[in-house]
Amino acid sequence: MCTDNSLYIDLQKVADKNDAHYQLILDDNFFRQLDQDEIKGGNVTVNYNLSKPNDYSTKIQIELAGQVTVICDRCLEDLKLDVAFDDESTFEVNSDEQAFYYTDEKHPGLFNIGWYIYEAIVTSLPIERCHPDNECNGEMTQHILSETEE
Predict the structure, then answer these.
(1) Which runs of E-coded beta strand occur in the chain?
(2) Of 47, 56, 122, nearest to 91 (Cα)?
(3) Alpha-carbon distance 62 to 48, whole Å?
(4) What does the CA dihedral 65, 70, 75, 76 come to, rounded to 10 degrees?
(5) What are the φ/ψ torsions at residue 52 (nearest 5 degrees)?
(6) Tens digits of residue pLDDT in 75-133
(7) Cα–chain-centroid distance for residue 29?
(8) Cβ contacts of residue 7 below 8 Å, gap of 6+?
(9) 98 φψ region: left (φ > 0), alpha (ψ -120 to 50), beta (else)
(10) Residues of the domain holding 104
């Protein structure tokens, strides 16, 4: 399980040109603490590497896999979806746009990798999130069908 402090990185203090490897296990508590309502919970393993290709930037290579719980678009019941994401991004240390977007009031000047990871997970989700056919809540499905017939 990750702690609040393990989600914040001082990009200026990343070890000079040496890779640093980290692993986080995200659970239901991680998703509840975020200011979001798209993902209800989950169990996701995140591996990421930090490196400094030069004095002005930090490269983040991230790989994650696991499962999250969202709401089914059709029946509004919990739906578990597998997630996977593999990406590499470079962040400029002094970039106002990037630095501002991934910081918060509680940890000024620190990169919030938790929010970055959350966005990676959401990006990996399908646009339409529904149970397979005949696995939705039958009561809700009947209610929806009766409403559309009127």
Answers:
(1) 8-9, 20-26, 41-54, 57-71, 78-92, 111-112
(2) 56
(3) 4
(4) 170
(5) -115, 100
(6) 999 999 999 999 998 877 665 555 455 666 666 667 788 888 999 999 999 999 999 98
(7) 13
(8) 24, 112, 113, 114
(9) alpha
(10) 4-149
One-letter amino acid of 37: D
pLDDT (0 to 100) of residue 90: 85
- The pair of structure tokens assigned to 64 is 């994650």
CA torsion, points 123, 128, 131, 136, in degrees to nearest 10?
140
3-state SS, residue 124:
helix
Q: d(Cα 83, Cα 43) in Å, to the nearest integer? A: 10
- Which of 60, 74, 65, 53 minimizes the C-alpha distance to 121? 65
43: β partners: 67
Domain count, the chain: 1
Task: State the burial class of residue 11 (Cβ atoms within 10 Å of its Cβ: 0-12, 13-18, 19+).
Answer: buried
**Rounded to 5 degrees, what are φ and ψ at 115?**
-70, -40
Instruction: Please give the Cα distance from 117 to 145 (Å, whole number).
Output: 37
Tokens encoding 78: 């919990």
Q: Please, what's the b/e burial string for 59-80 (b: 16 or more CB within 10 A of its CB; e: otherwise)? A: bbbbbbebebebebebbeeebe
Tokens of 53: 């290709």
The structure tokens listed for 21 are 């490897």
